[in-house]
Amino acid sequence: MSLHKLRLAAAVPVTISTFSSRLFLKPFPNTLTLGLFSRRLQPRKPLLVRAFSASAAVQDIPATQTSESSVARPQWKASIDFKWIRDNKEAVEINIKNRNSNANLDAVLELYENMLNLQKEVERLREERNNVAKKMKGKLESSERERLVEEGKNLKESLVTLEEDLVKLKDELQHVAQSIPNMTHPDVPVGGEDSSAIRKEVGCPREFNFPIKDHLQLGKDLDLIDFDSAAEVSGSKFFYLKNEAVLLEMALLNWTLSQVMKKGYTPLTTPEIVRSSIVEKCGFQPRGDNTQVYSIDGTDQCLIGTAEIPLGGIHMDSILLESALPLKYIAFSHCFRTEAGAAGAATKGLYRVHQFSKAEMFVICRPEDSEFFHHELIQIEEDLFTSLGLHFKTLDMATADLGAPAYRKFDIEAWMPGFGRFGEISSASNCTDYQSRRLGIRYRPSEPLQTGPKKGKANLPATKFVHTLNATACAVPRMMVCLLENYQQEDGSVVIPEPLRPFMGGIELIKPKLK
Amino acid sequence: MKGKLESSERERLVEEGKNLKESLVTLEEDLVKLKDELQHVAQSIPNMTHPDVPVGGEDSSAIRKEVGCPREFNFPIKDHLQLGKDLDLIDFDSAAEVSGSKFFYLKNEAVLLEMALLNWTLSQVMKKGYTPLTTPEIVRSSIVEKCGFQPRGDNTQVYSIDGTDQCLIGTAEIPLGGIHMDSILLESALPLKYIAFSHCFRTEAGAAGAATKGLYRVHQFSKAEMFVICRPEDSEFFHHELIQIEEDLFTSLGLHFKTLDMATADLGAPAYRKFDIEAWMPGFGRFGEISSASNCTDYQSRRLGIRYRPSEPLQTGPKKGKANLPATKFVHTLNATACAVPRMMVCLLENYQQEDGSVVIPEPLRPFMGGIELIKPKLK
What we know:
The complex is a heterodimer of chains A (515) and B (380).
Chain A: H1 2-25, H2 33-40, H3 54-60, H4 82-87, H5 89-98, H6 105-135, H7 142-177, E1 197-202, H8 215-221, E2 225-226, H9 228-233, E3 240-242, H10 244-261, E4 266-269, E5 273-275, H11 276-281, E6 301-303, H12 308-314, E7 318-321, E8 327-336, E9 355-365, H13 370-387, E10 392-396, E11 408-416, E12 421-430, H14 434-439, E13 441-444, E14 464-465, E15 467-475, H15 476-486, E16 494-495, E17 509-510
Parallel strand pairs in A: 4-8, 7-13
Antiparallel strand pairs in A: 1-10, 2-3, 5-6, 8-9, 9-15, 10-11, 11-12, 12-15, 13-14, 16-17
Helix pairs in contact in A: 1-6, 1-7, 6-7, 10-15
Chain B: H1 7-42, E1 62-67, H2 80-86, E2 90-91, H3 93-98, E3 105-107, H4 109-126, E4 131-134, E5 138-140, H5 141-146, E6 166-168, H6 173-179, E7 183-186, E8 192-201, E9 220-230, H7 235-252, E10 257-261, E11 273-281, E12 286-295, H8 299-304, E13 306-309, E14 329-330, E15 332-340, H9 341-351, E16 359-360, E17 374-375
Parallel strand pairs in B: 4-8, 7-13
Antiparallel strand pairs in B: 1-10, 2-3, 5-6, 8-9, 9-15, 10-11, 11-12, 12-15, 13-14, 16-17
Helix pairs in contact in B: 4-9
């Protein structure tokens, strides 16, 4: 009887391997169209574009691999709630469809089932091995002992194989599951770009009674921006700011900082070189064809595209006290983006550049508070841009325009008369627990649980994942486009909005320079 | 061969012509290779040196000026790392996880202090006629080389970007030098005087030992850099203007420092003369470099191709170049640190600490920090 069992045990790994490699061979839909897809988003490419992390699962997997060499051991694992996914699979599937995500839910569910079964099998074999070991402690006939020794050896070998398979299966499961995007807030419109809803509109387009210039022309005429020298020194989409534009950048950042600090945000400056694993954990894609991320030669480091990344990293792999929450930061950094794949009219001048200064807000809070803070963040942004006299609209971005991490995303688009259209100047995302599950940011609730089992350390409530949110307080080049184009005057000068003047030594006007 | 020739003569000439042509091709190739080799070795010849520069190593550098004296403390002092921790200003630990060693986050008043330092420095230097700029921080590696730095090589200070010929700048001097490269400027446009802000990135490969603690040696920092392009006869004047600006800035901040005329073995290849300022850092118990002002004469301009055309036509001698235009000459370039934020922060935190653990903000910076006079320990 035990021999029969052994044969069954021996048979199982073969089936699993074949099965998982079969899954592996299952063509991942839209592999080739992923690039096209991200390009389709380009015309209104949000400031904070994330390549769908689905591509992580898709692009790395060669079609003909067996399970042995299929997935490189990941450097890190997201804490994914597989059980929840399985119990809510209809909702997850609808969400994936609405977001045009490439995540393969069927693969995840199948792998999960297989994993559970394999785990049971491993546990069963372990139990058997323990039984054998127990039996061997008693008094036995030598033939019986020999048989048990043999049985023990076989069990051990099978176990080793099964445990290896289990590890591989878990890695595969992790790999495909990590590309499942965040769930979506029920109020988010379903659809593509055109489905985004306008939440608020402030101001109206200024009427000009003279022919207006775009920011590039103003930048040349007022000796504020130099793209030509930068093209020689660095390449296209780089620039020098000169004269009052430098003062304007500093005034924008200083003023923004002082306004946001009043709301209880802690100022920070951050590293701009980070390990690539941090970039991934935040939901971005350091490698891959159309990556937005610059990598450093000879290291595992990258340049950040937004301070959101080093901000997410501050508290990674930590357990915070509930009393420490919320943590609210406003961080300055330079940001670097390859803008690979970005083409068309939406690349002119300061609108799309490789390097820029940005002030970013970041909130870490309890799950029940994230909706509140999402509204706080968008309110802060709207107040800032209203104070500067901009005409803008706040959009509730539709499902197909959400990055994988965002549960809900509000973008603000401001009127840019030189372009004759609205352009994105900020984005505020509620990422709920998507990033925290990858970054490993938890908190321990203060109140002990009244009912239910107490897990974890004796008498301490179980830790939970925090929610994270991020929002642009000031993206300098986009703001500069708005200010230069909206505040230009017939004589070629540009008016400085009142709130910024004290931060620029009182300058009220950028005047044409005598030549 | 254009004349009338007998056919045997013509054949001989054709043969001779062919041989000459082949020899020429070979020789011309050799000439190109030789020129390349010559260029290659010659480019490593360092700039000449100002006659007043002391000859020798570190210990031979001469002290040009000393300002202030070390503050006397009647309580046990902390170094900037300790102050940074106690006042919740600097976080190296999180940065080590996120990025690696020698990276850091600034927090709270330290952020305001960095901005105040840069804002105040800008306003002071602009008064002297310097044009403010911000620069790209990613540049082509050829620009880095033309400025006299070494992008490749074992102990390079330079980070390179994967899959491109681009690097991160270690100082704004590089994109500043690049602005006017391969140009001919009018004499009337000179001098060009810039003050540029940028973040700077350095691998600090090969830097070891005690001089690496905390903010003293980091991979990324903010810096305000002055850059001058002028006529050769004016570079000595501007070298003194630059060092005077630096000394005025640091005196205003109440620092104790000495200005050194760096000895020959301590000059980088581009520098004709180099003045370093070292400020007293009580937490380290020694002086540490906070700025450097170099006169590179025509070393960088010969590589970057920055020339100017003198206004006055030459009275005597042959007129070269375009008809009636004087020949172009190479400009001289100079660069000087107006404010290297982390080193300044070390000085300010360590020198202005008080017994109760707070840090006084020097007066000139207060208006640029919303009037804050003191960084106080936070309640916990």
